[in-house]
Design brief:
The chain is mainly beta and 169 residues long. Helices cover 5% and strands 44% of the residues. The chain is built from two helices and 13 strands, in the order ββββββαβαββββββ. The longest helix is centred in the middle third of the chain and has 5 residues. 24% of the residues are buried.
């Protein structure tokens, strides 16, 4: 059975592969911009959520690479491949009141302006036009995350988002 991850821990990426023979790892970042992941430290990896200090990191081709303290060879780095990179929520910068981290939106209940429940936010993803909320309820819905036009109100304290959306759509 996998260890329960504390709620204040957020996944910001994962170790995606190896780079060279000196312990560098390829990093898949879920941050925007993707290089932000290199500014958060320490990273918490594995089931035990062991903290790892980032020694160096940079863009590499279309991705990122990083070197972690105590990871000086390819064999040690190979043991990290596939692990989620987590940080404490407190490591993130404060946002203005009308901006949200995707992690804050996951789990919110969604209801129309008329009070019709649509479900809960399961995940969020980006498109060229705007971010999209995946809402799981009686069926899966994809709602564009567009302030004023679709998203009317978010109350993190109540765990609720109100949207201008036809429940039949």
């Amino acid at each position: 059975m996998e260890k329960q991850v504390p709620l204040e821990m957020l996944v910001v990426g994962r170790i995606a592969g190896l780079c060279g023979v000196r312990g560098w790892v390829k990093v898949f970042s879920e941050t925007e911009p993707r290089t932000n992941i290199l500014t958060y430290g320490p990273w918490y990896l594995g089931e035990g959520l062991r903290p790892w200090r980032l020694v160096a990191g940079r863009s590499y081709g279309k991705g990122l690479v990083a070197q972690l303290e105590g990871c000086e060879d390819r064999d040690r780095a190979a043991a990290l491949v596939g692990l989620a990179i987590r940080i404490h929520r407190s490591q993130l910068p404060q946002l203005p009141t009308d901006e949200f981290y995707w992690a804050d939106l996951v789990g919110l209940s969604i209801e129309t302006l008329g009070g019709v429940p649509l479900g809960r936010v399961e995940r969020v993803f980006a498109t060229a036009a705007n971010d999209v909320l995946v809402v799981a309820g009686d069926r899966e819905r994809l709602l564009p995350f567009v302030w004023e036009r679709v998203v009317k109100d978010i109350d993190l304290g109540q765990g609720r988002m109100r949207v201008a959306w036809d429940p039949e759509f």
